[in-house]
Amino acid sequence: EQSKIANEQQNNQFRLNCAETRDSEINTITQKALSKILEWSKIRCGGSTNEEREKGLSRILTYDIADHETVWLDFYKEETQIKMDLSDMILDHLLDETLGI
Hints:
Blueprint: H1 2-43, H2 50-67, H3 69-73, H4 76-99
């Protein structure tokens, strides 16, 4: 019975650690989102004139491009996917050719 209690305490501690981690992650994500919202609110892309709106939207797009530039420049995933697709096409062609013999 003591091992059962010890096991239950260990499970409770694990759940507590997971909950703390989730709370920490939620707080981090919330802080980042709040920071972005405050940054974007300074841009005022909902200005009263079309020119003000265009300037604001242009700034937001510029910030977004800068934030995601690393994703645009990381071709490793695309290169790997293309290689896999080509390998599949070659294998299909060879199988068709072999079955045709």
